[in-house]
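Q: Could you fold this chain for me?
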Amino acid sequence: MRWSLLWLAMAVAIEATAFGSRVERNAYATMMYMGTPRDYEFYVATRVMLRSLSKLRVAADLVVIASTDVPLRWVRALEQEDGAKVVRVENLNNPYKNQANFDRRFKLTLNKLYAWSLVDYDRVVMLDSDNLFLRKTDELFQCGQFCAVFINPCIFHTGLFVLQPSMEVFKNMIHELEIGKENPDGADQGFIGGYFPDLLDQPLFHPPVNGTKLKGTFRLPLGYQMDASYYYLRLRWSVPCGPNSVITFPGAPWLKPWYGAEMPLVFIQAVFYLGIVAVTRLARPSLSKLCYRRADKSISFIQTGLKMIAVWSILAAYIFPVFIIPHTVHPLVGWSLYLLGASALSSIAVNAFLLPILPVLIPWLGILGTLLVMACPWYPDGVVRALAVFVYAFCCAPILWVSMVKILSCLQVSLEREAFLPRLGESTPPAGFNKLY
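A: Sure. Below is the predicted structure, expressed as structure tokens.
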């Protein structure tokens, strides 16, 4: 196993030189792999980060270390449209995947170790895709054999670090993996942090004015990895130590930068839906002013048409929001916006036809229940999850049918009592005439 990985690393180094004559001696690198619920989102995020580096005109190659299962169309887009050099690798086996505190989202993050096999470069800045660059950071290539930022007082962050590629270091890291070196989180953060345990005691990096490359290990100033939460302290980017160059988003998934772009549209839609609820509620006719109507065979066809309009308006209330929710919004925000939109649009039918609220919102409650059933974290596999959703839907079907019957019966009573269709030739009754008290 060990020798196969070493041969693979040598193949990676050879492939990295197969792009023709290389001018740059340094590289900004990131990684891509498949197997998470948000593979496409990280693919888009990687492309955005590469484009931002290109616009800054960095004096370095852009390299993507991509696992062999990354779709070829993504690889072609990275190479042809974003100008990146894609190096295909096999996923490294994670020996920590069965430890108690392991998060399966980070199962393949050890692929980051392949950065040490890019021996055609003098220095490599290894990046996570959730970084935003505010300015060029080419001075980082003057740093030593390993440099990283402490955004935590005791633990440096592996979302951005500088390294000097070395096959010797890479081989030693693979050996440490094989013998099961202690790793507190089972991911790249814990492994690399344990491999460079003395970084906290090293001097702070200051780029030499003559452009020479330093030797050794250094701590990077905090300005190279500004946690996005710092912004909310003063509502501006101002970290006093080091240049304010790179913003990182190490927190919860819904705080990643690619979700923020759609938030203004989400806010507008939420305000729109809340406005619909308020307007339809205020415009609801007063029950004390409704008159009885006798059944009239001449308007039965129109009443049937109104019933169909009411039913289709309820269906549209649950279908329409799906098509206007931003596609890249976080699922938690997206589903919340959908439920708000469905309830707001349903209120139009409720108030226009004086329908009871609960039967109209039974599908809304059913969808919410389905999401909770799907989100349950204790399923052993996807088959059990699918069966649980099927059983839940089977149990909810009778309730949904009863709610539809209730809606139709209430709609019939409402049409018979309401003056929706005044008789032709009849004058409007005077105020206070034939009212319900």
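A (continued): Confidence is low (pLDDT under 50) at residues 12-22, 286-295, 418-428, 430-437.
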